[in-house]
């Protein structure tokens, strides 16, 4: 029965788990619905759970004392979300906001610890999952800090294309409506500067808009601007 459920579920960032270990996760999950606008957790909450997204979308944000929001990650179907520190009591350093009605499998830390202790192969897969998160964080900080705001914007557009992109000939449609405010929050820039940078890219014929969605016309130009290292898609994602 679990294997049938497994086949019907998306894998996302949990593809590093074997079929058997993914089924072990499924067995421990407690299903819960989260409406749009609610939160899986807040910054400062104890990190004693992981959340598997069976349906919906979640964004992870970090807020400054002035109330400015930085979008760290965006997760969708098949992704597991949370700050996992097995065997240690820690607090979340970011907030997880539900941006689409979501169906979530909740995994308690105590159940996770039991699986890690009982199954060495599960522990290895879990270490792989944590390693993917570390690499994702490292590459994101590189993009934000090393090549200025234009580099950060181009990297974000590439990540969006890997996450939501649909290839049409030589172009890639980012099949999600991403506002300029969203982009500014993703790279820590003002909305006005994002407007200017997008306008410059349109003038260079690197991108265009179609029904309010971004179409990338020259991926190589974006890669050159952000000094792209051609990371695998599991790392180069939003």
TrEMBL record:
Alphabetical UniProt keywords: Activator, DNA-binding, Transcription, Transcription regulation
Please report the name of this protein according to its UniProt entry. Crp/Fnr family transcriptional regulator
**Coiled-coil residue spans:** none
Gene Ontology molecular function, alphabetical: DNA binding; DNA-binding transcription factor activity
Q: Name the source organism.
A: Paenibacillus anaericanus
PROSITE patterns, per the entry: CNMP_BINDING_3, HTH_CRP_2
* Residue span, HTH crp-type domain: 147-220
| Domain annotation Cyclic nucleotide-binding: ranges | 17-116
């Amino acid at each position: 029965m679990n294997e049938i459920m497994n086949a019907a579920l998306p894998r996302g960032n949990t593809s590093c788990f074997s079929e058997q270990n993914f089924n072990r996760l499924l067995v421990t999950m407690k299903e819960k619905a989260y409406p749009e606008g609610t939160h899986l957790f807040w910054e400062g909450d104890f990190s004693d759970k992981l959340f598997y997204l069976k349906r919906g979308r979640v964004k992870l944000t970090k807020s400054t004392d002035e109330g400015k929001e930085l979008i760290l990650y965006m997760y969708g179907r098949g992704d597991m979300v949370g700050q996992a520190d097995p065997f240690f009591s820690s607090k979340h350093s970011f907030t997880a906001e539900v941006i689409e009605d979501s169906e979530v499998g909740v995994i308690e830390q105590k159940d996770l610890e039991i699986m890690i202790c009982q199954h060495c192969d599960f522990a290895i897969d879990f270490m792989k999952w944590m390693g993917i998160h570390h690499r994702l964080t490292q590459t994101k900080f590189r993009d934000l800090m090393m090549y200025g705001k234009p580099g950060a914007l181009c990297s974000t557009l590439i990540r969006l294309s890997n996450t939501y992109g649909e290839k049409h000939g030589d172009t890639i449609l980012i099949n999600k409506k991403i506002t300029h405010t969203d982009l500014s929050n993703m790279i820590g820039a003002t909305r006005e500067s994002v407007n200017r940078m997008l306008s410059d890219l349109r003038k260079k014929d690197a991108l265009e808009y179609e029904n309010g969605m971004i179409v990338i016309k020259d991926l190589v130009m974006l890669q050159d601007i952000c000094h792209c290292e051609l990371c695998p898609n599991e790392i180069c994602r939003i």
